[in-house]
Amino acid sequence: MSNSSVIHQLTEVMLMSRNESWPEDEVIGPLSVNRNKILKPGTEYVNKSLSKNNQLNMSVGMNGSDVELDHGEGWMLGTVDLVVVVVYFVGSLGLGLWYGRKHRSDPVDYFLAGRSSSWQLVASSIYASNISSTQLVGMAGSAYTQGIAVYMYEWMASPVLVVMAYVVLPGLIRSQVFTLPELLQLMYCPAARYYFSAINIVINIVMQTAGSLYAGALLLQVLLPNWALWHIMLALGSLAAFYTVLGGLTAVMVTDAVQAVLLLVGSIIMTVAAVMKAGGWNAVVAAQPPGHFSMIRPLGEPSVPWLGLPGVFLLGVYFFAINQFMAQRMLSVRCVEHGQWAAMLTAVLKLLGLFIIVVPGLAARILYPNLSHGDLVYPTLMFDLLPTGLRGLVLSGFLAALMSMLDSTMNGCATLFTMDFIRPAFPNMTQGTLLKVGQVTTVVVMVGAVAWAPQIRHFPMLFQYLQQVLAYTVAPVLALYIVGFFWQGGTPTAAMVTIAIGTIAGLAFFLAIEVFQVLNFHFLYVPSILLVLSIMILVIGSLLDPRHKKVDHLQKRPALWSLKEFREETKALKKKPLWQNYRLQSVVVLILTFAILIAFW
């Protein structure tokens, strides 16, 4: 699940503007607004009460950067909780810096961890970076309101990662590139590289980094009522930037590994506590409305209709295979085998989302049947069910998810800017200078994200649209990669025409569906249509391009996947123990994947 709906919903819940014509205690959407609260002139006001007990009871006043919050009795951290959180921060920070101290000598060390990462480290880092704090809140909330259909985004990651291990990773790792956009230059032209790199940087700063900071800070402010929102964001961003700047990708991945363990342990504790409190698994199942336990939804379903599943798959391919801040981990592995093993382990970890993220939201329907907003499920469960100590551990898991997203996007943006723009522009720049550019860029990304994040509350609908645009713009670039992996004949002119026409077509769909609503069409249908269109334009345009016939042009295009290499890999795998054969591992992963689908069809 992306940050878009979560951030928009949190903004809607916590920052709804006051209307002077509202009567006292009028219910406006999910909110009960009481105007008896005295606030300074021009202040926006929201009052939120969930119950008389340990659930959320907040008042949010917005005047500039001032945020005022009232607490329910249970929304407090004990001394043991604080100790656990402090130990987490100090321990993960120290561990990351310790392991990252040797990887600061050159760009390969700093940006790609010396291309020496193990499969366990890569898998845990990908998993921790993928499960952001907004995803923890958003998936539990969506499960509470809509059932397990939201899990399809997690479920689809497993087949995506299997395909990635078979098709993408061998050529990607052998290419020895620093960034995924760099691959587009090898396939087509520098312009394609610069376009996609710039898009990646903007998306990662404006949406991923700033979005995670904003959503995480909104929730943490309940615990830190005396802190302004931007103070919390600055503290979180500075901490993540600190160990990212000093330790590079190695520090990021090592801290991610610790955070992955905390995330899993905390989520398991939350699930067990919620299900037991709700009366057990059978009680949770019995309490769900019809259809809430079905992953496959009918065509009229607004969340994930079955015909939109190919679109979910394509978005997954984009996110795991060509999005820099995720794929950068795969570029850091010590060999192709480790990358393939990492993909298999990540696929298994993603399957756990149903049980450790979605199920608590289902149990909350019994425990808190009258929650006015689903995104309050996760924090309410945390503070209502868990005793002191465990509460701090689960909160550490939440913070771990947030920090993993921040360090990943900061490091990814620094790599893109340094290696895709600075190095080509200044080819004689020393490695030490490139390293410093990357470190400075990390700080700039952090400052930019912190500066932009508070503004999200002023543009909730615009921010939602910016996030949704991703679904309408992925296909053209994805088509370039798919064709480039299997065919060496794509030409630069055809590639840029594909980007231009595909982007215009995606924008037309976006305006027709999301803005003017003249087309009753689910957005998940669009990526498949645009992908077919983009591939046709690229292939036909390349064949018609006179440059396609030039032998020297074709020889410059690397064959990133071929049937010959696949057969050679098959022979090599026969000599290895079965447990080291990623193809056998992939069979096990797919059996587990489709067993879950059948069980919750």
UniProtKB/TrEMBL annotation:
Residues that span the membrane, as ranges: 75-100, 121-144, 150-173, 194-215, 227-249, 261-284, 304-321, 342-368, 388-406, 433-453, 465-487, 494-516, 522-544, 582-600
InterPro entries: Na/Glc_symporter_sf (IPR038377), Na/solute_symporter (IPR001734)
Keyword Iron-sulfur: no
Gene Ontology CC, one term: plasma membrane
Main location: membrane
UniProt KW Membrane keyword: yes
Top-rank lineage group of the source organism: Eukaryota
Keywords, sorted A to Z: Membrane, Transmembrane, Transmembrane helix
Gene3D superfamilies: Sodium/glucose cotransporter
Record's bilayer topology term: Multi-pass membrane protein
PROSITE patterns: NA_SOLUT_SYMP_3
Subcellular localization(s) per the UniProt record: Membrane
GO molecular function, one term: D-glucose:sodium symporter activity
Family affiliation: Belongs to the sodium:solute symporter (SSF) (TC 2.A.21) family.
Protein name: Sodium/solute symporter
